[in-house]
TrEMBL record:
Name of this chain's protein: Riboflavin biosynthesis protein RibD
Organism expressing this protein natively: Qipengyuania aurantiaca
The organism's place on the tree of life at top rank: Bacteria
The reaction(s) this protein catalyses: 2,5-diamino-6-hydroxy-4-(5-phosphoribosylamino)-pyrimidine + H2O + H(+) = 5-amino-6-(5-phospho-D-ribosylamino)uracil + NH4(+); 5-amino-6-(5-phospho-D-ribitylamino)uracil + NADP(+) = 5-amino-6-(5-phospho-D-ribosylamino)uracil + NADPH + H(+)
Gene behind this protein: ribD
The protein's role, per its UniProt record: Converts 2,5-diamino-6-(ribosylamino)-4(3h)-pyrimidinone 5'-phosphate into 5-amino-6-(ribosylamino)-2,4(1h,3h)-pyrimidinedione 5'-phosphate.
Length: 327
């Protein structure tokens, strides 16, 4: 069956649920599931802390017998492998008697890849596949780690209107207001690790933690881009390409400074660019970036697509997604 507009709407709802599992679901992907019957949501679920139970298991337990003849909207293909931590979700869906399953992405895990959907089809369940930008974004860390062997990288920049990240003497606290800074902490809380360069570490002595009430325990692992001796509790890498060695990290949040930001952009390792722009002018300040390796102005075009924008107090938040040609 060809997916409908209603299907994509429910998948987007499942993707929003999935965000509740990030990053607590690690090492598993954060997946969302919505069970719909006669146009009404009867249950919902997302991957729980530590990766189990899976989203489908949570939703099916919530629905009970009402799951029979329902449609399950799942952001990622239901798993096909049994585990000591729980049964395969494809088997659970069969046992629950759902009529239809709509998935947002195939699972690259070889234990499931395609087999989860085939198991559903063999049981007489109608299967459809669709995707949306929201679904892709919700699984970005898992899919990039699976296909490219590295984390999904978000680069955050807090800028003045004239593109400065600090005064000429290096002072940068604070360019943006409280609302923008709170939003940054919410983004930290959804990351597995946070990285800054050695200059920022020495200049600002950042805590790199989450300081939102109730989310303090979500503080990500700390990573330093430097050739120096690693401080206590901080992982050091010497080159951006070494992010592949950050075990268990699906989402890496790069906060700067200018050297670290430029090095990640030059290596083409930034997947999402998040800019907080304050309505101030600094003039003779520190620029946001150094050389990022562009040979011509033409190379700068066509790389970034607007993903999100919002007002945060007096500051403007804008996010861009990196576009890359398929190999």
């Amino acid at each position: 069956m060809i997916p409908t507009a209603s299907d994509t709407r429910w998948l987007d709802a499942a993707a929003r649920l999935a965000s509740r599992g990030r990053p607590l679901a690690r090492p598993n992907p954060a997946v969302g599931c919505v069970l719909v019957k006669e146009g009404q949501v009867i249950a919902r679920g997302w991957t729980q802390e530590g990766g189990r139970p899976h989203a489908e298991a949570v939703a099916l337990e919530q629905a009970g017998n009402a799951a029979r003849r329902a449609t399950a909207y799942v952001t990622l293909e239901p798993c096909a492998h049994r585990s000591t931590r729980g049964p395969a979700c494809s088997d659970l869906l069969v046992e629950a008697g759902v009529a239809r399953v709509v998935v947002g992405a195939l699972d690259p895990d070889p234990r499931t890849s395609g087999e989860g959907l085939e198991r559903l089809r063999r049981a007489g369940i109608e299967v459809s596949q669709a995707t949306t930008p929201a679904v892709e974004a919700s699984l970005a860390g898992y899919l990039i780690r699976a296909h490219l062997g590295r984390p999904h990288v978000t680069l955050k920049l807090a800028l003045s209107l004239d593109g400065c990240i600090a005064m000429a003497d290096g002072s940068s606290q604070w360019i943006t207001g409280e609302e923008a800074r709170a939003h940054v902490h919410s983004r930290r809380a959804m990351s597995d690790a946070i990285l800054v360069g050695g200059g920022t570490w020495r200049q600002d002595k950042p805590g790199l933690d989450v300081r939102l009430v109730g989310l303090e325990e979500r503080s990500p692992a700390r990573v330093l881009l430097s050739r120096g001796v690693p401080p206590d509790g901080v992982k050091v890498i010497n080159d951006p390409t070494q992010i592949a060695q950050l075990e268990g990290v699906q989402y890496l949040y790069v906060e700067g400074g200018a050297g670290a930001a430029a090095s990640f952009l030059e290596a083409d390792l930034v997947d999402r660019l998040e800019i907080y722009r304050a309505p101030i002018l600094i003039g003779n300040g520190a620029p946001a970036l150094g050389d990022i390796g562009l040979g011509s102005l033409a190379e700068a075009h066509g790389r970034w697509v607007l993903a999100e924008t919002r007002q945060l107090g007096s500051d403007t938040y804008t996010a861009y997604r990196r576009t890359r040609q398929e190999a």
